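Here is one chain, start to finish.
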Amino acid sequence: MKQGLSLRVSQHLALTPQLQQSIRLLQLSTLELSQEVEQMLDENPFLERTAEEAPREEFGVDVADAPPPRDDDFTTGPSATSSTDSSSAAAEADAPPVDATEAAPDWEGDGTVEMAPDDSEWGGDAPASSNNLGPNDGSERADATELARSQESLQSFLHRQALSLRLNESDRAALRFLIESLNDDGYLEDSLPALASGLAGDDNDEFDGLVHHFQVALGLLQSLEPVGVGARDLGECLAIQLRALAEPGESEDSAQVRKTAIAICKQPMELLARRDFKRLATLTRSNEEEVRSALQLIATLEPKPGRRFVDVERNIVVPDVIVTRTGQGTNVKFRVMLNPEVMPRLRVHDIYAGALKSHKGEGSQALSQRLQEARWFIKNIQQRFDTILRVSSAIVERQKSYFVHGELAMRPLVLREIADELGLHESTISRVTTAKYMATPYGTVELKYFFGSALGTEAGGNASSTAVRALIKQFVSSENIKKPLSDSQISEMLKEQGIECARRTVAKYREALRIAPASLRKAL
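Its structure:
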């Protein structure tokens, strides 16, 4: 093989550390962004959080998709950023990812330690607010997260009840251990021998003693509120609740129905889910009428006793964007604004930056890079929110019918339409609409909710899949519960509305809406 030298000219895209951070921040959820901010505050001494109100940095939504300016371009006003190439960020978003571990990030620190005009606080015009007013004069504000944290857990509720029981030390410890072993639904997932084996090891005598104490403690646990807690499976949970319904003056018919219901709970739960009346009647030695009455009684029970104690903080969705309605009739308009509660208020620490300005000794270049990194972080966060605002405004403009008439008026929309309108790349729109939420007059929804495929209509137009799902939900909610609609019937009803939707598509949409099949929706 002959060796030789050759010269080749090629072009390639490389993501700078600034753009890598900008893209990464764009796809973070509100919670993840909060964690990122906290980490940056811990690592960078030049970055600080402030509660003081200050004018918002005029970076502007007009150039939200453009890469931030160079270090020597840090000035306020839109004129400093309007000349930036607005397509470079979108183009570089398609470039192959760069391994950040290959080299340390270069934040283009040039030794400049002067306080830039835009080093003041960003987001200062967004004071935290809440709609939860105090009960007295309305001046006190309660945070939803704090209210969620104050909710009592299932374990705390049970421990409080256990204090009123007169138990010896061993039984009290066993009961405490079982309470702590419950899952969020109030079930004891592990068997008593398995729990005892984990504590006793190979000691058989201790194992037998622990099993005995656990059996006593289990009886005590299942006698506590909420009724059904401490069950090992669904059948036992329902049976505990049925036994608790017994009353001294109970009629003979009610007692028989309750007895049949308890017998049904001892059978495989698949029969109960399928409502196999004949099979259940045979297994419980009852007639079908008694089985129907028993299933009606079972339907009133709580399958998850610990449901109301689940920490509601997990279910809180804080919207990134708030849409408010103004005007009436034909003059109705919708105002799109960022949620001030999710916008971090950050600024460059002016004392440290001033100290660095007067210090030109060893290590000043590294500190200058940290200062520049803090500046870029603030600008990238601002760019993130500006891009979210631009995309949200475009969505509201396209889906105005939804905000006026509801989800039945949703029109088909794909990511490319918004991308073409804003001059961004489709992947950028995908990042913006993932895990970002909008508060609308019809509730808080994810931005991706507004995007849906199109279904053909007899008139030659298109109907949004979101609107079709809403129509299916409306059909099911108004159906005769004694004769629920099948998927084929729903498909025919949609055709009567001029929407071509196959039975399989109806079944897919119904499952996505978590609507049970017709056989399970039928009234007993």
